[in-house]
Amino acid sequence: MADAVTSRESDYSQWYIDVVRKAKLADYSPVRGCMVIRPNGYALWERMKETLDGLFKATGHENFYFPLFIPERFLAREAEHVEGFAKECAVVTHSRLTLNEEDELIPDPESKLEENLIVRPTSETIIWNTYADWIQSYRDLPLLYNQWANVVRWEMRTRLFLRTMEFLWQEGHTAHASKEEAVEEAERMLDVYATFAEDYMAIPVVRGRKTASERFAGAVDTLCIEALMQDGKALQAGTSHFLGQNFAKAFDCTYTDENNEEQYVWATSWGVSTRLIGALIMTHSDDQGLVLPPKLARDQVVIVPIYFNDEQRTQVLEEAQRIQQELDDADIRVKLDADDNQKPGWKFNEYELQGVPLRIGIGPRDIENDNVELARRDTREKNIVPQDGLVARIQDTLTDIQDGLFQQALERREAHTTTVDSYDAFKDVIENEGGFVKAHWDGTEATEARIQDETGATIRCIPFDRDDEPGEDMLTGEHSEGRVLFAKAY
RNA sequence: CGGGGCGUGGCGCAGUCCGGUUAGCGCACCUGCUUUGGGAGCAGGGGGUCGCCGGUUCAAAUCCGGCCGCCCCGACCA
């Protein structure tokens, strides 16, 4: 193959970049650390967005939109929040450009802003500033809102989709009258994320709680879903935060309860980003390129016509169009590639690189025998199958691919999840095998920091479903309430 | 922020060490014919201020000085 991607074994990092670029998901942009999301990549994001948006609406949320710019003083209001984000903010200081004596374009000193504006790294502050106006009474609660937006975090080190300076995401921001209700909301939305990851993206995830050091800046509690990539590194795929009354207090957001008493509002926020595309790639794709789960593929089936002369071309295309129509009628997303400029062989390779789950090849031979050639992207199996019953067969196969991808990822995760009881064993697994490691931890930040320092592994989460199994910290021997999940992470 | 790499038609590169015809190759692109079941063949054609600025020289992609940009790898982070 002329345009092969680097193999995962020889250079995982280069493989990832090759997949992104050769599947035409994204390009580098002229701006350092930012990317151009190409139509193939954006189509994926659109499908994710549509699906998630439906799940948000189904759980009672509405969309709104807040400004890209946040007044600098807002960010300063919540102490931990500033501390967490101050290091990575883009700051707008001027409102126009002008030419200097050397004819160079510079920010016009005359136009210096009275107050700097921050390009949002997240929107809690500006939203809670407004919630303070919207909320007076317990009757105004809850507020269940979400926004689809871009945010900017000035990163040192970037990687396509996984960490770029600007990225697309959704951020849900809810306000509640009680702590219980807010906690429940944070849990509900984590569940929505987990469902989405597993049922649509075919990515098995561990649901859990972050330790204090990994918590969102300004949150009381951060819940997360963690996924394991093919190279044995963990990736945080979504977070949901119980914010307590931190932002309500910072922005003086109170309501009057049933007893006419003033109370601070309880809050949550939750988000997933285009980073999920990175997770998708690193979960399912192979050395032939992208592999997409059928539920998220823009094109679930591509039809490649094969012919040797004009007469055959007419005949084959007619047949191909008929099949296309049948599939379309059955709500299968299908593309017929009748482009005359590329040969079938070229198309086969191209659609494999782009991860289209199923390919139908149809040529004179097939027409004669009422067959088509059906090729699966995930297993790379090819079969000659009868046209009779094709729609049902394709529906079944798509389901099979979707389930198979999840199953395969789940098995890989299980195979790369190790339970250890000694620090030596821990270091050995982290160093040589990677993956998730279940081990006892004494619950202190000091121990957590030392482990990270010495091994590079962090506590990904305290899993919700961990066994009730007290023990002793592998490092300090102190009491541990149960095992936590360690891994090296993206 | 440290370490490494790279900057030459749209893309990938060679040429740079050791200065010297008209800057070359593959892919892509355009035209034509033949082709089409796993990245087609032949013929013809178009496209470059060699990242930028300065210096040395009869002569600079090549040597010297400075600057800029991007990518990769590590520490911090969705």
UniProtKB/TrEMBL annotation:
Q: What's in the domain note?
A: Consists of three domains: the N-terminal catalytic domain, the anticodon-binding domain and the C-terminal extension.
The entry's protein name is: Proline--tRNA ligase
| Organism this protein belongs to | Longimonas halophila
Give compartment(s): Cytoplasm
Assembly mode: Homodimer.
Protein function: Catalyzes the attachment of proline to tRNA(Pro) in a two-step reaction: proline is first activated by ATP to form Pro-AMP and then transferred to the acceptor end of tRNA(Pro).
Q: Which reaction does it catalyse?
A: tRNA(Pro) + L-proline + ATP = L-prolyl-tRNA(Pro) + AMP + diphosphate
Gene Ontology, cellular component aspect: aminoacyl-tRNA synthetase multienzyme complex; cytoplasm
